[in-house]
Fold this protein.
Amino acid sequence: MAAPGVTVDVSDVRRAFARIEPVFREEIAFAIAEGGEDVVRLARELVPVRLGNLRDFIAYTVDKATSTGRVGIRTGRISTPRKNSASQWPSVYGRFVHEGTRHIAPNPFMVRAAELARGPVQQHYNAAINRSVKVLHGEYLAAGGPRKAA
């Protein structure tokens, strides 16, 4: 004899969650990009500029698959009169500027930029969540809204 119980069909819930993820992921990727732009803009304002090469190599990337973003200094080499110097590699030189050396005081411009952008970045995430809810709510209403119990 089978134990008494209740069977609940959750297929509608599974379909709803399957629909939520792509909408939410797309909106979050957009928010990450907006936040990345904010941090890059602030970092470019805060970085010390002699020639502008380090400033020009500050960039962000977004990985939609993992919903993550990264702000940093792009790798690459620039042409300078001084061969084999750190200034040819902005990502190397940027670390010296940011972390400091025994000859250069640290200037953590990236950390300061991230701290200054914290509020605007949070606003981008809140807006993304709100946009996702509005899209999904509109689809929910278009599908007939709440169903009546049988």
In short: Residues 15-135 form one domain.
